Structure formats: structure tokens, C-alpha cells
TrEMBL record:
GO terms for cellular component: membrane. One of its GO terms (molecular function) is amyloid-beta binding. Residues 115-163 form the TM2 domain. This is TM2 domain containing 1. Keywords: Glycoprotein, Membrane, Signal, Transmembrane, Transmembrane helix. InterPro entries: TM2, TM2D1-3-like. Belongs to the TM2 family. It is a multi-pass membrane protein. Residues 1-30 form the signal peptide. It is found in: Membrane. The gene is TM2D1. It comes from Phyllostomus discolor (pale spear-nosed bat).
Amino acid sequence: MAAACPLGQAAETVAVQLLGFLWFVSVTTGPWGAAAAGGEEPLKCEDLKVGQYICKGPKINDATQEPVNCTNYTAHAPCFPAPNITCKDFSGNETHFTGNEVGFFKPISCRNVNGYSYKVAVALSLFLGWLGADRFYLGYPALGLLKFCTVGFCGIGSLIDFILISMQIVGPSDGSSYIIDYYGTRLIRLSITNETFRKTQLYP
């Protein structure tokens, strides 16, 4: 009986070691082990938080005053992740950035222009609006001829057109936008539809 005790202790030690080994294998090969070993999907650069990247302004076309890569009312500005940040770039490659590499391209809105200058339209409306030159320039020949024959509707139509063109309410007849300096006096028309999100009003 005295000789059986060491054998029992040895068997118990082997069983404990075997259980420990099985636990280690299950942890390292399971979902927790994959996460600990870096099995998570790397962060995409476009998912970085504000302050972890900086975006440069787009390159502007001198003729159109719109971004050179404007397509379907959308252009893309290059964004640079901050130094010592690792993320997936626009090519899908995991990269450790130093602050000089492009991580992703941020979409920005742009406009469709077709050669109609805002400055020219305002000048024509101010000085030659009574002859209908502004309407001829913007592609409204019928209204231009009517203004010409009535001397700008006795001056009243010329004043109204000057206000409408200056506020960019009246634009080119083809639906395009005026050519305005990219960082100039652009007006953004806001509208509310049934799809507009409306914040719930809280009353005291």
C-alpha cells in the first residue's frame, strides 16, 4: 500500500499536465487564440478617426474651377494617415505610415460646368441687361429678344434678372453650374423634402 502512493501521485501529475496541454491547445487555436495572435481584420484607413489623418485639397482645374478628377459630381481628395499608424490603404495593403503616404481618397462633391462664367453673367446683367444680353448669354434667346424689344421690360425686368443672376437662382439653360472660383462666393441651395431627417423637438 505504501508503494502505491507515489504511483498515484505520478498519475495525477500526468493527468494535470495533460489537461493543461489540452487547455492551451484549445485557447491558442480557438477564436480567442486567433484574436490574441492578431487574427483580427486590420483597420481600413478610411475608418480612421478625425485627427488620425489629414486630407489635402484637390487639384483645381484653372478653366473650370473644379477638381480635375470630377466625375458624376464627385471628386476625390488624397488623405494621409498620421505617423506610426498601421491600416489598410486604398489598394488593400496593410501599411505602416510615416505621414507622407496616401492612405485613402476621400470623396468630395463637385459641380458640372459648361463654360458659363458667373462674373460674365453678372456683368452683362448689370450693364447690358436692358438689351437682354444676359439672357442671350445664358441660353434663353426668347427672353433675351423680348427684353431687347421692351428695353428690359422698362427696366423692371432688368433689375429682377440682375437680382436673380446675382443670387445664382437663374443659371445656364442647359442645367449646368456657373464657373466660380473654387474658394469664391458659391451659394448652396438647401431644400427640405419628405426624406430629410428631422430632429425630434424636445419641449420642456
